[in-house]
Amino acid sequence: MDLTLKVWRQANATAKGKFEQYKVNDISPDTSFLEMMDVMNENLIQQGVEPVAFDHDCREGICGMCSLFVNGRAHGPDDDITTCQLHMRKFKDGETITIEPWRAAAFPVIKDLMVDRAAFDKILQAGGFVSVNTGGVPDANAIPIGKAEADEAMDAATCIGCGACVATCKNSSAMLFVSAKVSQLALLPQGKIEAKRRAKNMLAKMDEMGFGSCSNTGACEVECPKGISLAHIARFNREFIKAKFND
Amino acid sequence: MSSIFSASIGKKLIMSISGLFLIVFLLVHLGINLLMLVSADAYNAGAHFMATNPAIKIMEPLLALGFVIHILYATILTLQNQKARPENYSTVNQSESSTWPSRNMYVLGGLVLTFLVIHIINFYWKIKVLGGHDIPSVIVDGVEMHDTYWLVAGLFKFWWFDVIYVIGAIFLGLHLSHAFWSAFQTLGLSNIVWRKRLHVIGQIYTYLIAIGFAIIPIYFLITG
Amino acid sequence: MSKINSKIPEGPVAEKWDNFKAHQNLVNPANKRKLDIIVVGTGLAGASAAASLGELGFNVKNFCYQDSPRRAHSIAAQGGINAAKNYPNDGDSIYRLFYDTVKGGDYRARESNVYRLAQVSNDIIDQCVAQGVPFAREYGGLLDNRSFGGAQVSRTFYARGQTGQQLLLGAYGALNRQIAKGTVKMYPRTEMLDLVVVDGKARGIIVRNLITGEIERHFGHAVVIATGGYGNVFFLSTNAMGSNGSAAWQIYKRGAYFANPCYVQIHPTCIPVHGEFQSKLTLMSESLRNDGRIWVPKKKEDSEKIRAGKLRPEDLKEEDRDYYLERRYPAFGNLVPRDVASRAAKERCDAGFGVGATGLAVYLDFKSAIERLGQNVIEERYGNLFQMYEKIVDENPYKTPMMIYPAIHYTMGGIWVDYELQTSIPGLFAIGEANFSDHGANRLGASALMQGLADGYFVLPYTIQNYLADEIHTPRMSTDAPEFVKTEDEIKARIDTLMAIKGSKSVDSFHKRLGHIMWDYVGMARNKTGLEKAIKEIQIIREEFWKDVRIPGDTKGVNSELEKATRVADFLELGELMARDALNREESCGGHFREEFQTPEGEAMRNDVDFTYAAAWEFKGENTEPELHKEALKYEAIEVKQRNYK
Which end of chain C has less Cβ packing within 10 Å, N or C? Predict the structure, then answer.
């Protein structure tokens, strides 16, 4: 396949960015999208141009580091995958592919296609945990947990923190991300104890970080590589409202 | 409770509650309107009830307040949401992941508001503000009152008003197609099972309202 | 007299850990606040250690090269975590877990460490459940277990195919709690470039801020290395793109011994290489071997037809298939340990029976399992893996057998540590995959997660105090001390040298060449000639690298090529040490297979008389051969036997 890539280039956080066009040729449809980007970068290095910076690490869809907005969609034109799992067979020979960084006030661009998602860490630091120290905990089987609750908690816990929900949301809302953690821990007896505090603190941090609010469009759920359900946002809303009514 | 409404979910909660309030109002409004299809007397009786019932009297300013709050918070949230993405994408392909109305609730709300202004001028303004001196009277329950049926029938004689009202109903329907389930979701009253149910109920409600309101001008256009 | 002192406590193996804890030195709470600990890495070991040390009251600085601690590659572990809970009542015990681990490691692990690992394994499960890790459960609400890697008991706890993710997120949660409390300060997108040693003790590190490009100095009363393994020396592996051996290599060059570098685990079930641009290999969980049958065609001409696309594998008749694992190992069949399965696949492909476009693949077939259990059962068990396979290969594995091939997965070798997880540099500790101690020559499935968390939650927080108790009078040192300045200057000079080369070839091109050499000569099967050749070739590549590498951009700001270059420069040295170690170890054991040392049937042949030791290498200077120290491995609680899976 021969392709034209329209790539966002931006020297650093404060610089003004713009699109550049690069060509890559003879790409096998079995190549992954990021490997195609590797080829592009290898060409650029040979031409003496600085390669395009983009985040990636595990390349198997679990670390959540890769983050590209490809042809208008977070993680590109395939469902239930991250960009690193996207393959070139999803594109047509001769196609022009637009590659942009996640766009959100809370995710400032660091360079080219890399963005800073530290806001996610800060939200989790505000309460995305169970307050137990190492040691001195009860036996693992001391508290039975219904399979349905455990499974639903697991559904929420599969979040990889990639930020596709924010990137795709018209409001740059982080509700799916935050709700996944709130919901996971609210479903489990270990996490229920501080569920109210958690919901309030994490929401306050989310708002402070400059994410938008949820319009319930459901786009996040569709673009989420792990298919995390909007039902978790409903639970988060519920937890928050309950918490506030108890204040 | 203290700071609930300053949080994003709190603001959404206001949207949800005010929206649900308006959703209930629309049902009542439609119920009265559909009496027009029964007879002029039935409708006038309904209108009389609305005009004289003390509960409705209390609800009237509340309704206005509901509209104002809904619009105000929609504006606040929209402005905030826009700030959350200062730089936009050059290419966006959102049709794969969400419906057009869900992404354009503020626009649709604005269109519905425009229609609402026309609607208020046509009826409420004429009766309540101008006093409705040129409207003939009818006797309902032994009380003399404005013949509102005459007012509606007179307006819908003009085809362009019929068109405006049908389009208004369509905008309202599009707005409601997302609003209904969304209100419950924001309240936290949805989950994987109820989401589907609420969607079905929401669709039924939406079609009922949109078709119900649209049918009246069409009825007058046809029966002329 | 050996310089090695593994500080194994006295007493029977089952009492050593309790004895140690009973007599070790501790640091009182008021003094903990005055002590700084640097933890490098945020995987299972690093995050759990940083969080636990923070909870205890130490001042922790935690570093990772990723944008968030949650991205560490522990997240990619699929299968599960072992513990000797014996919930299924199937006869498990601490001793049995200990025994299986030592045996699985082909009797090349340190007995006392493995016993301690088995002892604390149960605490890990309790801890993780308390943190809200959503392990799989039965309908009765209790935890579910599954069997793994052919063990005779079911002792593996799991969270779907994402156990590593869930455990890491649990540790990351604990870490986040400490970050919020201020006991841990997090430095993401920051890469360690060197260790600062003052008066023979580890006192700090030099790092590069990967955003600004600034070189920074950090002081610590102790330094903990939790930076994982060095599998990426092979370029293609199941490791993350950024996984590297640099921290381990830097401390090696500062005096920490590197032990058993040749012990590399090659995982048998990975998706095969598809082309020259391939950047990494994707693992398919070992659990697939519970129901899948591995085969290649019996006749070479069939393999050729399949490779040419003239024959579909699903159309090949049953009698024309060679289920070679079932044929060679009737007792264990498709469930032989990883090293055995990997070598058998290589043997068939080398003999010309391989399939796939490159001929470097074998089939993992679910046809008979689907016939026996129904497609829905297989879907329930492996649905997400099948979907992942289909996304990558574009073939439906329910219809066409999966293609698999072995790939580099884990490194059992690593920094030499004593019983207290302290390296040969006082004040410097190594935990998790970065150290060498627990897995011997081969790691059992679901044991890596166990070891990482054991070290971080339950071992290091004790043992590090035994060292720090003597440090309470050491004040925080200024990072303007001459040792810091000197180390930083050396790093800056090295970076400047790299940037000044302005050659013609990309970093990746060197890395790929190194990878080919490593895979061909230091991979699944090794021999003397090949290893000697590898050492020479690596030296040539290294020389060329330092003459001809091209790194665009500058040192200010983000420069991914520079990051890669510093890592590859280290791999180019580490690879040579691996080959040296493999050359030295004239036996076959676990993941290390020397072709000269095999039975007539082609099975690995250990030499217990001469090689029952851990090979700890000491750096002696650039272009000087390292010195080998031997830590004799004594087995008191276990009888050493030849492994047999027939």
Answer: N
